[in-house]
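Record type: monomer structure entry
Structure origin: computed from sequence
Chain ID: A
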Amino acid sequence: MPCGEHLERLYRVFPWPDDPFTEEGFKRYVKAVDTFKRVLEHRWLRERIEGGGRPLSVIDVCSGCGIGGVALAKALSERGIGAELTLVDLRGTALEKAVEFARRELGLKLEVVVHNVLEPFPQELLRRFDVAILWG
């Protein structure tokens, strides 16, 4: 059985509130947006976003349904800053929800990559990102 299927089974047995379309998952998202608003006040990020003039490229590793990455993109958008968001997860079904959630929340199109992060990254991820997060 592929690793992604094992992980899907694990989440059915031991639920984790990573689905932003559930009440509990959406609460986690709202809390994450608030957290990222505070994080964006850090000197390093503030200097980057105030003088950058281009969208911030963000990779969310082990993203699940995208709560962390979409929350960061939301906090950025509220400051008038764009985000180019890439989500990486082993579960394709989670990434499908992430795409739908990002579209609903931000009208944002994002890149998703089904990948086991214990393996070397595929060619499409071998580029520079401004911010990498692992949320949850």
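Annotation 1: The beta strands are 56-61, 83-89, 111-114, 131-133.
Annotation 2: The mean pLDDT is 89.
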